[in-house]
Amino acid sequence: MKRNIHLTRLLTLTAMTLAVGSLGAQNGFNMPYSQFGIGIGETPFNMPIATRMGGSVYTLAGNNFVNPFNPASYATVEKESFVFDMGLNIQATTLHDDAGSQYDADGNLGYLAIAMPVTAWWKLGAGLMPYTSVDYESVSQGTYMDSGTVKTVYDGTGGGNMVFLGSAFNIPAGKGRTLQAGFNLNYLTGNVERAISFDFQGNDSTYYLDSRRYRQTRLGNITFDLGLQLWQQLGESYTLGLGLVYKPYRDMTVRDKALIYTYHSTDQTLVDTVFPESGGDPSYKSRLEQAQTFGIGLSLERNKRWQLAIDATFADWADMRYTEDTAHAVLGNSAACYGPYSRYTLGMQKMGNMDATSYWGRISWSAGAHLTQGALRLVQDGTEHRIDEWGVGLGLSMPMRKGRSLLTLSLGYSSMGTSEVLQRESFTLGISVSSCERWFVKRKYN
User: Fold this and answer.
1) Are 63 and 405 in contact (CB under 8 A)?
2) Which whole number is the average pLDDT over 415-419?
3) Share of the chain above pLDDT 90, in %
């Protein structure tokens, strides 16, 4: 069920410079903030293991699940094991400002991942997960020639996926200490399609023709990241964990394809192509940048029963920054800019005892929270609005059968932005299955 929503502030911020006349009310938004860059980032909350801990993932490791957010964690997989991990997400979202609200819900595949040993000290991890999402539509009404009306439609779909292949290594570190290092090689792939359509209502096409501006961005880029995990035994009861993650700056190119044309509003029949010119190439290259990113995590574990973890992440901006070739800029200029990004998380869990006689004693319970100083800034009437986010999560991991396989359930809530611009509130239910089987053991028979 959806209700119309008048998000005039957001339209003011996101309307491109090509809009005609004064813009007014709109309806039909799904994820309005996804119209910037190559979309809204999906990680790390696309995985229940992260959501249930509030996003504290840098010191997270286990022999029966995959944690791609610190590639050093693959080294924890046991030498006889093969781990297959997959998850689903169901999300309910409400958008609102002081004029109205809109509700939407959907579900999608959260990720697929595997981990396996090569030797006792060398392990591999690989997988596929969503990286960004683009899904929005807004409609505005304006005027032209002091009498006519024009309907402007902004729409976008698509996003990027990340395929990763990583290695992790156990490094000798002395008695009472465990040291692991790893890296991920990532391939970003996907399509992002955006368009602006102008429908001059009631005109006779004498002075104004309905038109559409379309751009497709194809991703096909390689990035990498490094990870380190260190555990130090503190006496007989406690273990201190340290996790470090580093993503270097990457300056890349993407291939854009653009089209500007006029059409008949009744049947969308093409009348004339404005761009490219006759015989011209509709393709051109634009810029895509990955920010240099640092992450650090600390955890304290007691007798493998209780754990407290905190993470901090810092970057010049978040996710991927897209800059269109200014010689084309078929959709006009955006009202967005970027600034420093930081995310802080806190997670706690009661760890299950796999040797417990009671099934309830083998279940792990967890909860956490995160606070994000957003990289995205929107400028309205000379005032810069920083789009921040905060959220909480909880979950449980339940062993399956008598083995080490896990069923993890998580429930997360997040709030992004403010009602002064646009606030997005989301509830996410995550379900993941981690299958951990011994594939490399030769069975003996009497």
Assistant:
1) no
2) 85
3) 46
Tell me the HSE value of 60 on the side-chain side, using a 13 A CA sphere.
30
pTM to 2 decimal places: 0.85
Residue pointed to by tokens 């921040």: 388
Q: Distance between CA atoms of 208 and 201, rounded to whole angstroms?
A: 10
- Give the position of tokens 């380190």: 228
What's the one-letter identity of residue 277?
A: E
Q: Is 39 helix (H, G, I), strand (E, B) or coil?
A: coil
Alpha-carbon span 200 to 265, nearest angstrom: 8
Hunting for tokens 């190439």 — which residue is that?
281
CA 114 to each of CA 85, 227, 431: distance values in angstroms, whole numbers, following the listed order: 6, 18, 17
Q: Does residue 61 contact residue 37 with C-beta atoms inside 8 Å?
A: no
Q: Does 254 score more than 50 pLDDT?
A: yes
Q: What is the pLDDT of residue 17?
A: 28
Distance CA 58, CA 55 (A): 9
pLDDT exceeds cutoff 90 at 140: no
How far apart are the C-alpha atoms of 97 and 45, rounded to whole Å?
Answer: 25
Q: Which residues contact 105 (CB under 8 A, 6 or more apart)?
A: 90, 91, 92, 93
Range scoring the smallest mean pLDDT among 3-12, 35-44, 70-79: 3-12
CA distance 182 to 328: 41
What is the CB-side half-sphere exposure of residue 409 using CA atoms within 13 A?
A: 6
> What is the rounded average pLDDT of the residues 69-92?
92
Whether the CB-CB separation of 79 and 86 falls below 8 Å is answered with: no
Q: Could you tell me which of 172, 168, 162 has the C-alpha nearest to residue 63?
A: 168
Q: In what order do the strands lie in the sheet with 376-380?
A: 336-338, 376-380, 383-386
Cα–Cα distances in Å, from 253 out to 215, 220, 222, 302, 324? Answer: 16, 9, 11, 47, 10
CA distance 285 to 138: 27
Most distant CA atoms of the chain, gap in Å: 94
| Three-class SS of 82-102 | EEEEEEEEEEEEEEEECCEEE
Question: What's the count of helices (H) and strands (E) in the chain, helices before strands?
Answer: 2, 22
Q: Specify the higher pLDDT residue, 23 or 128.
A: 128
| DSSP at 71 | G
DSSP 248: -
